Amino acid sequence: MTDLVAAAHGTADPRGIQVIHALTREIARQRPSVPVSLGFVDVDTPALPALVERVVADSNHAVIVPLLLSSGYHVTTDIQGEARRRPDQVTAADPLGPHPVLAQILADRLAESLVAGVDGVDSVVLAAAGSSDRRALLDCSSVAAELSAVIDRPVEVGYVSGAGERLPAVLARTTGRVAVATYLLAPGFFADRVAAVAARAGATASAPLGADPRLAALALHRYDVALRTATLTV
């Protein structure tokens, strides 16, 4: 069975690390026949290149599944770079987003954070980490459109870093009752920043996506698609 290497960003916040490990365990629980390991593209260890080297030495082939919500540098350079270095042994799957299931999870997190649910707000701002890569911004816009369709409310995107319009500016020009959908995987620096910015604007921010079983199922879907593609091209 081909190994699944989950590739996460990494964080210095223990809350975030706990969520990432919980999500990885959930992936393994849902597919016990697949060997699952976790590596990081930044901050934490094991570093992805060293982990991939160990995995392919043991099993010969692996699929790297980005536990990342959009395309960007870490996907195109770090993760796909591993596949380019070992084209006969390593396949890179797509990141988790965009995908309709993410909009469903975001809608649930919003409903959990609001006393009256989404019926109590007029519009939503999707708060994303941000990137200098235009593909990542387009991915976030796609998820915002999907969330809008799910909750039947306008949804705009505000970023806390990188390119794109910043979250405070989007909140400042958004009228009516506003809520913030936190489009982040786990707690940490960015999630705390989103919550603080939302509070200053008088808005409620939802919790990050967390180790939701639907995210684990999505990661396995990305694995399956990548594995089929790799098999077809052999």
From TrEMBL:
Keywords: Lyase, Metal-binding. InterPro entries: CbiX-like, Sirohydro_Cobaltochel/CbiX. CDD domains: CbiX_SirB_N. It holds the Pfam family CbiX. It comes from the Bacteria. PANTHER family: FERROCHELATASE CHE1 (PTHR33542:SF5), SIROHYDROCHLORIN FERROCHELATASE, CHLOROPLASTIC (PTHR33542). This is CbiX/SirB N-terminal domain-containing protein. It comes from Kribbella lupini.
